[in-house]
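Q: Maltodextrin-binding protein, please. Structure only.
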Amino acid sequence: MNTKRIAMSLLIMMMVFTTVACSTKGNNNASNTANTSNAISQNEQVNGEEVAQDEELTAEPGAKLIIWDGKDGIPFLKEIAKEFSAQYNIPIEVQEQGAPEQMQKMKTDGPAGLGADLLVLPHDNLSQAVAGGFVLPNDYFEEETKAEFQETATKAVTLNGILYGYPRNMETYALFYNKELVKEAELTSWDDIIKFSKSFNDVSKKKYGFMMSLNNLYFYYPFISGYKGSIFGDNNTNPEEIGINSSQVVEGAKYYQTMREILPMTAADLTTDVKTALFQEGKLAINLDGVWNIGNFSSLPFEVGMMPLPKFPNDENPRTFAGVKAYYVSSYSKYPNAAKLFARYVTSKEALVRNFEVSGFIPARKDMENEPSIAKNEMVSGAIRQFEYSEAMPSIPEMQTVWEPMANALDLIWNGEDVQKTLDNAVKNVKQSIETLNK
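A: Structure for Maltodextrin-binding protein:
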């Protein structure tokens, strides 16, 4: 009985200490908190156990963690988890679960106490995760996260003004180019791409200057953003304002339509496999594609560069969609403090550089382009330059209603149909889908 009372007293003291610490954190200056990931180095004895802590946040006694991530993130996670466990006496189990499986399992395993303490999710799952009550805000390290990570990344993992995620890596797309066929200096504008392609194309030999996915809104978005258009109002957050048939978007679509001259193919014929094969064979000079292909294009018999999308005729830099993967602390975790400490630890500058070296994930932190392992990879450096002109893909639930209507519209526009009428019809379809979604 006395033992239970002592344990309870210690637990109450721990709760009081954590509460006081969190309430006073805002009074610390940035210099004391910016390197918190390195400050998680002091241990203390609590009820006979060594417990990790930084200057203020303390892991719960007996803490142990489960982390879910997809297959590509597992090797590095296992490596860093061992180091964290050895240093801070917090056991960590890494389990392979893809993002869709994580979201599904949290509905049942979370309330049952069987779910992970930390999830790794793409940012477009955030709305669903918050609506399901699966994740906790990134409150303790909020200031550090906003100061140290790309604004695009922190906005992506923020919902309704609340920061939830601990960003890990960013993905977007840019222009891969065959350095034996074309130079970056020759591509200062989108008109340059068209001019080069006219001189390079030889359709009879399946040689093309430029290719992109023709009916996928994800890759088409620069033709919207580059003409100051948007999908939804208020920076793509207000579904009550649908902007895909605005005058700006129509202007961009008309310019897109003119590119049929240099790419005389239907959207159905220009598949990802066809485009990739032509690029690898040296028959395609400029390939608009995602950063996830950097590894695939690193061992070709010719040197490949990657550059940001050039300006449109209106002198605007087009913005690409960016995807952000991040760590999230489960709201069902019994050890949220320990989970927050690990999330901070695994997103330190040093950890993300190592993660890049192991997994190829391009860090979402600021000022990473000068890291030696990143700087020596020209394609990664090009991708980082594109991040400066990228924005988080909308994560509001209504976004799912846009993909199919826009795919159909882009098919028609590419085939020469009236742009305004086609986009007006797409808006009608989106509105109908949103009404169904909200029923």
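A: Brief note, in case it's useful. The mean pLDDT is 88.
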